[in-house]
Amino acid sequence: MEVSPLSIILVKSDSKGDRLLFRYPFDTNENQETDDKARKNPYTLPIAEETLQSPIIAASSNITNGVLTGFSDEVLSSLFAVKTDLCNKKFELKVNDVRFVSHPTLLQLKTRQTEKDDSGIMLINIVFTLSALASHSVVRCYHDLSQRLGLILRHEEKRCGYVSEQIQIMMSTHDDCTTSSTSSAAFQVILEKCTLAQNIKKLYSDLCGSGLVNVRLNRWITLSFCLPQKAHQWHLGGQIVEPEDIDRCLQALRPYHSLLLLHPVEHLIDFTCLDSSPSLAKMLREYSPMKNLQTLSADSDLTLNHVFELAAHLVYWAKATIIFPVCGTNRYVISPTASLHHNSPLLNKFSKVFPDLSLIKVIQEFSVPTSLSSKLNPISKNNMESLLVRNIIWMLQHHLLLQLHTYIEYMPTDSGATASKTLKKFGKTPSPRTSSVLSASYPEPSIRTESESGASTLSEATEIFRNLNMENASFASTDDDKHDYQEELLLDFPDEERSQIFKIPATNMPEDLQLFARLCRKGYFEGNHHIEEIMYLENLRRSQITQLLDKFRDVLITYDTEDPAIAMFSCTN
What we know:
By secondary structure, the protein is an alpha+beta fold. The protein folds into 4 domains: 7-35 and 60-231, no CATH class; 243-327; 336-404; 407-568, no CATH class.
């Protein structure tokens, strides 16, 4: 799907009539629509009535080499010089295989503000021409851009009469070039004289290029705009990302996730200066891909919700992506979409950053899932760790690696759970992936000492004590009371599953059985939560979960896959 505009058209309408002032690009064959009439022979016989009634099979097209064709300036002017009732609303028109999108805007001309009639009112319409196959989200983005342009021009006209001045130059140029056979000559002169025309040209180039617009209108107001369907193509291998996809992934953003910038921090200075939020620069000063968002919030002295908003802003503008914090327990494998052929430009790009290393040799070590801690040499740990982490970050930025997470599935019998609905009634804790980022009730960020993958370093004894208090349990010294307590913990489990669980020796340890039952009731063993997520949500250490998996391996199975919450950013879907 092509998301770039075919052309940008500027039309005005006032008491003196309507006129197409400028269009870009303008080097088109304007006589194309009259070619067929010119070739007709006036002496041919009339066409039979049967021929006139036969349907026309061939469909006309107004797109040639990605540019709008087949419309004269007069036709476009008549189409887009809309009535007052259609102003300040979304305007959309489909003709053949093209779609016109705009937001007509009414201006009060500065030079005639004292007049009481409507002669000082002018309509300005900046129209974007798209392919008729453009998605609804693309159309919405271009309508939003046209509306922003209209607001800026209205402001500048009120402030200094900028629009009146530019239109006067354009009208004079058209009048001076009336002897020319085409209007291309007039458009070329307008492009040299008018800053508004130059801004339209840059706008077109930015939209067709990176999808990131940064235009300073009248050298006063900066227009910043992101076309996400275009902006994310460069780092996702041409994959088109809809704004709805980004919103859905950002809704799954959690405090244990991390931010990975796709550009060096120093390259984002222009992005964070002038009109941007000072807190964005403040956050970037504390940025590290080895920090989760909660730690970044504490280090930046910003609220967690605000860090979420800033992270979403960077992701939307294709300046960053979402990962899990880089740490020794992370396991990575080569991405199936990694561009690693011998002529890949990534080979030379990697060599410029790491002159003594070869990308093929470095990445081949991740042909099978491999953890970072297994790649470190204890003798030269510090130097190797720094280099390895920088290698991993570079490969993650270029989507060459996938991080695998371990998911847990409760399988008490050969066919799985005997009553899948039983587990769902244990608790009403919603899956974190379905809640909104801003509505999620996360605690305010606080500095926490982290070990392994970011879990709290509470002692195991303290954790067990807290779990016991939550369950309001008191362990009796007699075997009968102990058995009754065990039965009570598994009271909601079917008889067949309960008997299978009691065969496991670990059920004799109350703290192990209690932790197993608690995690089962909350739905963590349904294959929807990976270990890192369970660690964060339940304030557990990795060792506690891995020991539990080992003790209950007869009824718990594990499998490794990527986190679906951030799968869009890995360029594999």
